[in-house]
């Protein structure tokens, strides 16, 4: 079998680590696709394309035209549209697809979580009394806070929220993880936060805010993930590599 052609839908640390591992092997043609929502994306170890495909059918056309044999959805656990498009494109083309999804965070003793099915539901659940809210859902979900302007918000995102929120009481922090427990505790104390709105993204890069909330006795409105797509999922880079090895067995050295 020739060199496999693999398209990785990325934007996560897992996607970068998988691309690094495949690049080190040097026995495949790898393309990493980024949505282009981050202004200064991290450097990547394989060729990169930036921007959307124009929908599920266009993604299917891209896979066929490029002769790809494997599609790996390693996007953010809350990138629901592209994941749905990936599932459709794989089925439409007959190309094998897998999803690389980090495990969800699990509630531990001391956590004060309240589950919410969406960011709007989490905002609504904050209640009628003014609260000091750390909105840690990223800039794309930040506008939902405008539905509850009586709260004071601290919004953290990798890139600026544009346009700024139409709120009288909002502060912004531009920062990129990984974050430390000490740093998160300091942030929460400085802004006198009493509740965090967070997505259950999983992984270690942003978990420190959940640890800090547990330590400080702060409530967390935890936004749940949408139901998983029909694409077969693995939860580690190592497991993804094992699937790739099964699909495209590496050449074995012949005995002399």
UniProtKB/TrEMBL annotation:
GO MF annotation list: precorrin-6A reductase activity
Pathway connected to this protein: Cofactor biosynthesis; adenosylcobalamin biosynthesis
Alphabetic keyword roster: Cobalamin biosynthesis, Oxidoreductase
A family per Pfam: CbiJ
Recorded superkingdom: Bacteria
A Gene Ontology biological process term: cobalamin biosynthetic process
Protein name as annotated: Cobalt-precorrin-6A reductase
